[in-house]
Design brief:
- This protein has about 475 residues and is an alpha/beta fold.
- It has 2 domains: about 220 residues, Rossmann fold (3-Layer(aba) Sandwich); about 190 residues, Nucleotidyltransferase, domain 5 (2-Layer Sandwich), CATH 3.30.420.
- Helix content is about 35%, strand content about 20%.
- The chain has an 8-stranded mixed beta sheet with strand order 6-7-8-5-9-10-4-11, sandwiched between helices. Strands 12-18-15-14-13-16-17 form a 7-stranded mixed beta sheet, sandwiched between helices. A 3-stranded antiparallel beta sheet has the order 1-2-3.
- Strand 14 and strand 15 form a beta hairpin.
- Helix 1 packs across helix 2, helix 13 crosses helix 14 and helix 15 packs across helix 17.
- It is elongated, with a radius of gyration of 28 Å.
- The C terminus is likely disordered.
């Protein structure tokens, strides 16, 4: 999709790059037309986004845009990438066109080299400065990477790894665009579970909204539910196949080696089903830790509240010789708040078995997390004569410790969960990632992180509570 335009420099840019042995494929021509579309003498799209599977020719497309902008228009361009090696590779490609230095006798294209004022090869500050005022500077992103730059075009390659602090540092570089016609270009692939994909996802969501403002967005992707083995889908989502940049045999090899999720994302361009969310625990790790029945062991409990006070999750843990088993026991969501259910929850902890022993006493402890409800529930438990040594109100440090221990346990294979009947927990894991403080937070607007927080805290109690050493192992592995 793209806004209406009066004209476009796309065909000129394509012809220009072709003259220097960089001929655009049909799909690249299509994108260039929209990137370089004009409205009232300015770029019709202030923001341009592209999501396309790897090895399709995305980097060559950026070279075409930057070559035309710097040489023909005198634009000052800042090209950024997530990794140093990616930035350096792009810079080497630019030197293929312009030469290694001004007056380079070995330059492949003498007329382009004749435009060069100087080439800067300092690590982290690579640049080609032209005599017409144009330039292409290449940097790896960081929270300070925008300092000292004033440019017309800001390119953010590997945008699926673009973090908020890097974006905030870079955006002001175009505030005083020398030509008064700035443009921001974001290119990448759908964010993976470990990627910092919030920025790229937000741009995509804005572009696909009903009334995007001065934006164009191009995406080659498959819809959820397609047959991952359908060669027709492979060809539709990988424009590099038609041009010969990518071979069908390569995709066949990837299909044999990648997980379904990885193949769908990396080769078919499929975005996560829940708003482009990222996750700390991969689908494969989660599936591998699932078991059919809970093992016997010493139980622990945790209740996590969200910030708004309208959600809570109750989780159980069971410490056994092989590790810790975790499950969601219940989850409650109420727009009016969950306070009305706290008394019933406190009563549940105090229910007695046939021998007259309350549920809390048969555990190694109860962790309560969340300012909105934890203190109130703790007091209700005290009112029912639950001793303080059974009630854990983790500090921020302890909460972060609990999250870290849960992640380590998941990745180390010492945590299990039930395969069936845990949809709430499955959905929460799919949209929960590590946040800046080291805790666990949902990465989609509609995502709920309280189930994951609850099981992480139940695991923490199981691992750290001194009461666990004194509890005898239960015969039946049930929570309710």
């Amino acid at each position: 999709m793209a806004p209406r335009a009066d004209a476009s420099d796309g065909d000129i840019a394509g012809a220009f790059s072709t003259a220097y042995e960089l001929q655009p494929d049909p799909w690249q021509t299509f994108v260039l037309e929209d990137w370089l579309a004009l409205k009232g003498g300015r770029w019709a799209s202030l923001t341009a986004g592209l999501a396309v599977p790897r090895q399709s020719g995305k980097n060559a497309l950026l070279e075409m845009r930057e070559l035309y902008g710097a040489v023909a228009l005198g634009e000052r361009i800042l090209h950024t990438a997530h990794e140093v090696k990616t930035a350096q590779k792009h810079f080497r490609r630019l030197k293929h066109f312009f030469g290694d230095a001004a007056d380079d006798p070995g330059a492949r294209f003498p007329e382009l080299n004749g435009l060069v004022d100087r080439v800067r090869n300092v690590n982290g500050q690579e640049a080609i400065i032209l005599k017409n005022g144009g330039s292409i500077e290449v940097v790896a992103r960081s929270k300070n990477s925008g300092r000292g730059f004033t440019v017309d075009v800001l390119v953010m390659d590997e945008a699926h790894e673009l973090e908020e602090d890097a974006l905030e540092a870079l955006m002001p570089t175009t505030s005083a665009s020398p030509l008064g016609n700035p443009q921001w270009i974001f290119t990448g692939t759908p964010p993976g579970p470990a990627a910092h994909g919030d920025v790229f996802t937000r741009i995509r969501d804005e572009a696909l909204a009903e009334n995007p403002s001065r934006m164009c967005w191009h995406e080659w992707s498959a819809e959820e539910g397609v047959d991952l083995d359908d060669r027709t889908v492979w060809r539709m989502t990988n424009p590099g196949l038609d041009s010969g940049r990518l071979q069908m045999e390569v995709i066949e090899g990837e299909r044999a080696r990648f997980s379904d999720d990885g193949f769908a994302r990396e080769r078919l361009g499929m975005w996560p089903a829940v708003g482009g969310s990222s996750r700390a625990i991969s689908r494969q790790q989660w599936d591998d830790s699932a078991i059919e029945e809970a093992p016997e062991g010493v139980r622990s409990f945790a209740v996590a509240f969200n910030l708004d006070g309208d959600r809570l999750a109750l989780a159980g843990g069971r410490n056994h010789d092989g590790g810790v088993h975790v499950e969601i026991i219940d989850a409650l969501e109420d727009d009016r708040g969950v306070d009305a259910g706290l008394s019933a929850l406190a009563d549940w902890f105090c229910e007695r078995d046939e021998a007259g022993t309350p549920r809390w006493r048969r555990s190694s402890g109860i962790a309560l997390s969340g300012r909105s409800g934890a203190p109130a529930l703790a007091q209700l438990l005290r009112d029912r004569r639950v001793p303080d040594r059974w009630i854990f109100l983790p500090s921020t440090r302890q909460y972060v410790e609990a999250c870290s221990m849960w992640l380590e346990g998941m990745r180390g294979g010492t945590i299990s969960h039930r395969r069936d009947g845990q949809v709430v927990l499955d959905d929460s894991v799919a949209v929960t990632d590590v946040d800046k403080r080291g805790g666990l937070s949902a990465t989609s607007v509609d995502g709920d992180d309280t189930p994951v927080e609850a099981v992480a805290l139940a695991h923490w109690v199981a691992r750290t509570s001194p009461l666990g050493k004194a509890r005898s192992t239960e015969r039946k592995a049930v929570f309710l």
